[in-house]
Write a structure and sequence with these properties.
By secondary structure, the chain is α/β, with parallel strands linked by helices. The chain is built from 14 helices and eight strands. The relative contact order is 0.11. NADPH binds at residues 12, 32, 103, 135, 250, 271.
Length: 321
């Protein structure tokens, strides 16, 4: 059986490497930065996931050629870097199962990860691994459940078995578009929830925001061809609940900083910001009603204050739920 590879040695890729390796499956973890790879080889730790020792059967490398013998390859680079990464890596990675672990919509093309994989690697089997899970929780061996989505049921079943571990339980789905949109859209809502809490608007407002945000997520996903049930599962509703209610979420913390008018380190990965812009543009072009997403995009781009966004949302015409 070929080795599992993980491309992208951030917090999430490293956490997946740890749980898979602990379950007895050797993993090759690829980092683009040679110095970072060398440090990890030396210290057996990744600074993005501090306090978690890398098991012996995790091989860290910055050499893309090392992935030639691996299948599946999990893609855990940030969403806005995925297309560029695959342009460079397509010749090495085409033909195998490529499992997108990133959450978002590409700002340049408006595409999700599986469409980007299919465009760059036409003979690959695209799949998605997504759902409510913080890297630190997975790495600590806390119980976690995720969605593994793949159009082909045989490949989906094989990936589900290969990537489940005693603490990481994967549920199968045949709707990768729905699964990836759930993960992308909930990050926008997590920013909005953070804004609500940061600005002191209260828990009731957050519950309203999450519920109306979920309606908006379903509307957008259905218009993109997703199945409604997928959004109601781990990859949509599950991850929405997690990231809108936990300060572990970077998207939530970013929103909270916006709400408080506080500084937020721009080096921190906040997938929902670029995705809000991408989704707002698609929604506007296609006439999909996305008031929360539009407000988030406008607030993060400084086109509207939080007070103005709240007034606009509250003064929309009254309607049926
Ligand atoms: N951290 C978490 O708890 C979870 C993260 N995710 C998703 O995983 C994806 C990655 O997030 P994290 O690992 O948390 O981010 P991170 O900020 O910890 O690390 C990102 C990694 O990607 C690398 N990278 C950046 N640009 C790259 C490029 N052009 N080519 C190759 N590598 C590049 C960076 O060097 C860094 O190692 C995101 O889409 C995120 O939404 C999903 C579930 C949980
Ligand atoms: O996607 C995640 C949890 O499922 C991680 O959320 P953040 O990227 O907001 O930290």
């Amino acid at each position: 059986m070929s080795r599992i590879a993980i491309a992208g040695a951030g917090a999430f890729g490293t956490a997946l490497a740890v749980t898979l390796a602990q379950a007895g499956r050797p993993v090759t973890l690829w980092a683009r930065n040679c110095d970072a790879a060398r440090d990890m080889v030396k210290t057996r730790e990744n600074l993005r996931l501090p306090g978690v020792p890398l098991p012996e059967n995790v091989t860290v490398t910055a050499d893309l050629d090392a992935l030639r013998i691996c299948d599946p390859v999990l893609l855990s680079v940030p969403m806005q870097a995925l297309a560029g990464f695959l342009r460079d890596a397509a010749a090495t990675l085409d033909g195998r199962a490529l499992v997108a672990c990133c959450k978002g919509v590409d700002m340049t093309t408006g595409r999700g990860p599986t469409a980007i994989i299919a465009g760059a690697c036409p003979t690959a089997v695209p799949a998605v691994l997504t759902g409510p899970s913080f890297a630190a929780d997975i790495a600590r061996g806390l119980p976690t459940a995720l969605t593994l989505a793949c159009v082909d049921p045989d490949h989906g079943t094989a990936l589900q078995e290969r990537l489940s571990t005693p603490t990481l339980r994967l549920y199968r789905s045949g709707d990768p578009v729905g699964a990836e949109l759930g993960g992308a859209l909930k990050n926008i809502m997590a920013i909005a929830a953070g804004i609500v809490i940061g600005a002191g608007l209260g828990d009731s407002a957050r519950a309203a925001l999450m519920t109306r945000g979920f309606a908006e997520m379903q509307r957008f996903a259905r218009a993109q061809g997703a199945e409604a049930e997928t959004l109601a599962g781990l990859s949509g509703f599950g991850d929405l609940v997690l990231t809108c209610t936990s300060t572990q979420s970077r998207n939530f913390r970013y929103g909270a900083a916006l709400g408080q008018g506080a500084y937020f380190d721009p080096q921190i990965t906040v997938e929902g910001a670029a995705t809000a812009r991408a989704v707002a543009a698609i929604a506007q072009a296609r006439g999909i009603d996305m008031p929360v997403t539009q407000s988030v995009a406008q607030v993060i781009d400084g086109q509207r204050s939080i007070a103005e966004a709240v007034t606009t949302l509250l003064s929309r015409p009254l309607k049926e739920e």
